[in-house]
Amino acid sequence: MKLITRDTDYALRALSFIAQNKDRIVAVSELTRKLRVPQPFLRKILQVLSRRRILSSLKGQGGGFILAKDPARIFIADIMRIFQGELKLNECFLKKLACPHKKACVLRKKITRIENYVLRELNSITIKSLLQ
Predict the structure, then answer these.
(1) H helices then E strands: how many in the chain?
(2) C-alpha dihedral over 26, 32, 38, 42, to 10 degrees?
(3) Domains of the chain from N-terminus onward
(4) Taking Cα atoms as reference points, which of 1, 24, 6 lies closest to residue 79?
(5) Which of 71-80, 84-93, 103-112 holds the top average pLDDT?
(6) pLDDT at site 93
(7) In the chain, N or C: fewer CB atoms in 10 Å?
(8) pLDDT in tens, 46-60
(9) 3-state SS class at 103
């Protein structure tokens, strides 16, 4: 199980780099060179972040991306949800079938506690905190 997928990793690295360079527009070519991320993947990720209003894009010569939100208000858990969907660690192997042991399952209770802890932590980490 991977907690963070490749797309989320690339998004977080790009957002961190753009946040470090907050006083200027950052070109995709610079991001791919500095982060060593394939341009087609990164371009798609940046477009998603732009549609979600986390980044602003500027087209044309001298174009690129800048943050549309304060880095202190961009949470890791939100970026993970964008690229990975809802964060769930505690999914029964029966999937959508009703489990007769759901309420009494000891393992489910323990994993739910772990899941709640992980989600609290992820909801507290911001792009700004990654820069410090």
Answers:
(1) 6, 2
(2) -20
(3) 6-131 (1.10.10.10)
(4) 6
(5) 71-80
(6) 56
(7) N
(8) 999 999 999 999 988
(9) coil
Name 106's Cβ contacts closer than 8 Å, sequence gap at least 6: none
How many CA atoms lie less than 13 Å away from 65 in the CB half-sphere?
Answer: 29
Q: Give the torsion sign (CA, 46, 48, 53, 58).
A: positive
| Contact (Cβ atoms closer than 8 angstroms) between residue 82 and residue 40 | no
Quick one: average pLDDT of 5-20?
96
Which residue type, as a one-letter code, is found at position 3?
L
- Token output for 77: 């858990």
Q: What is the pTM of this model?
A: 0.85
pLDDT bracket for residue 129 (50, 70, 90): very high
Distance CA 109, CA 63 (A): 50
Closest alpha carbon to 77 in 123, 109, 28, 44: 123
What DSSP string runs through 8-63? Answer: HHHHHHHHHHHHHTTTS-B-HHHHHHHHT--HHHHHHHHHHHHHTTSEEEE-STT-
